Amino acid sequence: MYDLVMKLILRKYRTESDGEKIRQFLREVFLANDRREISWPLYRWDYWRWHVNENIFKFDLSAAIFLWETPDGRLAAVLNPDGPGEAFLQVHPEFHTPELEVEMLSTAETQFATTQAEGRQRLVVWAHENDLLRQDVLKRRGYAKSQWLPEHQRRRAMSQPIPEIPTPDGYILRTLGGVDEHPARSWVSWKAFHPDEPDEKYEGWDWYANVQRAPLYRRDLDLVAAAPNGEFAAFGTLWFDEVTRAAAFEPVGTHPNHQRKGLGKALMAEGLRRVRDLGATLCTVVSYSQAAGALYASLGFTKYDLSEPWVKEW
């Protein structure tokens, strides 16, 4: 394995064909890791590539994504950000060595670190709780666990029974409609994730078209809950990969005016039934807060791994 790592060739992202190569690589890595999220699963790449980056951060992909390949062109590792000052190391287990980790971290520190007000450099690197090799390398390079909340990577086998959750009276669970419903979908998302922000900061709904460009996106898995007056009260989008037979919720939210009615739970139960019927054998969802974790656990997402943020300043 050491010889393989020493022969790896580092290059930058070039074209959309590299994007498809990364997508197939992440599928392979996910399966090789027994469908645990030690590296990003495919849905997360799609969601980041077509929504998070396209609509929010707008990184130049040719400057922000680094690939390590074997001489015959096989992809061994990918380095990418999520937001500014963060690094995610996607590594195939066959190439998981201290030498490669050091090279990837050196690249990340050079390319992704942000400058703080006092002129210090800062970088956050995420590491799976079971990745002891990466944790050891991080410690030796001066990283320490951040005070940020860890990512709870929750999972449930689809062989588990799906609870029967009644839809609150007057509400309707259904699939999102056409483009004419993008404004309503965008507004409920804004209110769910920015409950304390003034409405004047709302930036519109054009971004949702990019979400629907993601290769894994399916309209039949993009669910909304309509209130008695027709307004959207909650939403939940599922992503299903037929190759890995894994599904994931991203995102899930409820308008503050419609919370504590069991609406999100009912919507998620409906989503679970849909992906089960499509052939999913695993479903995942990420949580950070205790409240979100409790909701997901009540739907069978009781097992989880932690992905933890490590920070270095220099």
Features of the shown structure:
Aminopeptidase; globular; alpha+beta; 314 residues; 2 domains
Can you give a write-up of this model?
It is a single chain. The protein is α+β, with helices and mostly antiparallel strands and 314 residues long. It has two domains: 2-151, Aminopeptidase (3-Layer(aba) Sandwich); 172-280, Gcn5-related N-acetyltransferase (GNAT) (Aminopeptidase, 3-Layer(aba) Sandwich), CATH 3.40.630. 34% of the residues lie in helices and 27% in strands. It is built from ten helices and 14 strands. It has helices at residues 2-6, 16-32, 42-57, 61-64, 98-111, 132-140, 182-193, 208-211, 263-278, 290-298, and strands at residues 9-12, 66-69, 75-80, 86-91, 114-115, 121-128, 144-145, 151-157, 172-175, 222-226, 232-241, 246-254, 282-287, 303-313. Strands 1, 2, 3, 4, 5, 6, 7, 8, 9, 10, 11, 12, 13 and 14 form a 14-stranded mixed beta sheet that branches. β11 and β12 (246-254) form a beta hairpin. α5 (98-111) packs across α6 (132-140). The chain is globular. The mean pLDDT is 96.
